[in-house]
């Protein structure tokens, strides 16, 4: 069975600094997707970044980048130049390629606080 | 374009009652999936609908059901509510079944007293 583990329940970062959120996963599939979602107090889950497992290059979206280590089954999120608006719950998730939305497995989340 | 709309935003029900939650997907999206979010269990998949057919179901009791209409709008129903059903219920829509990215709504916060 797929599992996603986020070992940091809470993290804190100073505004304008860099923070890295950790995520490990386990799957027996060779083709899968990995995601980071952000959930602010508004409750809406917002897709931050997505990585296809077959791609060796790490995904990047503006200030957000990932460090994808396939052999180690690790998928960390780096937020550069942190802003107050980055404060939220962050969820790591995985999905087997070709699966339905039901195969979207989430970690327990990391609460990120940003200090001014 | 409008996002995923979930109604109502908040709901308070008594044990034993039933409840219906609504989700209107992004225009043109035909797949709708539902998730339950609780502090203890985190995010858990409930079910997914595509073209008015349930395509996948999570590990929830039969008290949880859903349906999808021809305009892709979806409803989920929970009968004989229990205290443990208190949760945030999130809906996500995507263009097609199996699409790896879904756009989520802001959820319905259900409290069972």
Distance between the termini of chain B: 37 Å
Rg result of chain B = 13 Å
The main pleated sheet of chain B reads as: 7 strands, mixed
Order of helices and strands of chain B: EEEEEEEEEEE
Low-confidence stretches of chain A: none
Number of helices of chain B: 0
Q: What's the average pLDDT of chain A?
A: 93
Assembly type: heterodimer
Main interface pair?
A: A-B, 23 and 28 residues
Please report the number of helical segments of chain A.
0
- The structure class of chain B reads mainly beta
| Helix share, percent of chain A | under 10%
**Which overall shape of chain B is indicated by the principal axes computed on the Cα atoms?**
globular
Our estimate of the beta-strand percent of chain A is over 45%
Q: Which structural traits does this protein have?
A:
heterodimer, A: 116 residues, mainly beta, 52% strand, globular, B: 113 residues, 0% helix
What secondary-structure arrangement, pairings included, does this model have?
The complex is a heterodimer of chains A (116) and B (113).
Chain A: E1 3-5, E2 10-14, E3 19-21, E4 24-26, E5 32-39, E6 46-52, E7 60-61, E8 64-69, E9 74-79, E10 88-96, E11 105-106, E12 110-115
Parallel strand pairs in A: 2-12
Antiparallel strand pairs in A: 1-4, 3-9, 5-6, 5-10, 7-8, 8-9, 10-11, 10-12
Chain B: E1 5-7, E2 10-13, E3 19-24, E4 31-38, E5 42-50, E6 53-57, E7 64-68, E8 74-78, E9 87-94, E10 103-104, E11 108-112
Parallel strand pairs in B: 2-11
Antiparallel strand pairs in B: 1-3, 3-8, 4-5, 4-9, 5-6, 7-8, 9-10, 9-11
Q: How would you describe this structure to a colleague?
A:
The complex is a heterodimer of chains A (116) and B (113). Chain A is 0% helix and 52% strand. With 116 residues, chain A is mostly beta strands. Chain A is globular, with a radius of gyration of 14 Å. Chain B is mostly beta strands and 113 residues long. In chain B, a hairpin with an 8-residue loop joins strand 9 and strand 10. Chain B is globular and about 35 Å long. Classes of the chains: A mainly beta (116), B mainly beta (113).
